[in-house]
Amino acid sequence: MIKLSSARRYAKALYEMGIELNVSSKFSEDIKALKELCEKVEDFVPFLANPVIDMEAKKEIVSSVFKGQQLHNYIINLIFFLIEVNKVKLLPYICKFYQDLEDLYAGRVRGKLISPDILSEEDVKAIKLALEKAIKKEVLLSQEVNKEMIGGVIVKVGDMVYDASIRKQLEILKDNILKG
What we know:
The chain is α+β, with helices and mostly antiparallel strands.
C-alpha cells in the first residue's frame, strides 16, 4: 500500500527547496513534464519500481529519457533517491501534491470541464469566469470529452461538482414529476 503522507512530505520539501534556491519556476516546469510523462507512459513508473531490473539500468533510462528536457539536478536526484529506497511509486503523487501546493500558495484551483464534445474557447472562458466569480479564486480548467454524455457540461473543481448535464436535468425533471 502506498503511503501518501510520504509523497506530501517529499512534495513540500521540494517546493520549499525551489523557493529557497529561487528555482521554483524551473521546478514547476520539471514537475509538470514529469507528471505528464507518468500519465502518458503508463509503464514508466511500474518499470522503475520493478525489482528485477537493475538499479543502475533504471537510472540510465531516467537519464536518457530526460536528457533533452534538462530536468533540474534536484528533480533527477529525487527520482534516483526514490528508485534507491524503492518508493518510486510515489512519483505521480509527489507531482500532484507539488502542483497542489503551488496552487494553494498562488490562490488558484484546478478543475475539469467534462462535455460530450470539445467546447469553444469562448464557452470555456465564460464557464471559467463564472467559476472564478463563484469561488473567488483563479481556476485552471482542463477539458475532457465524454462521448457517453447526451449534452450539457459537468465541472469538477476540488471536491465540488457542478452538474449541468442533460442527464442530470432529466433526473431532476423525473423527480419533480414523480413528486407531483
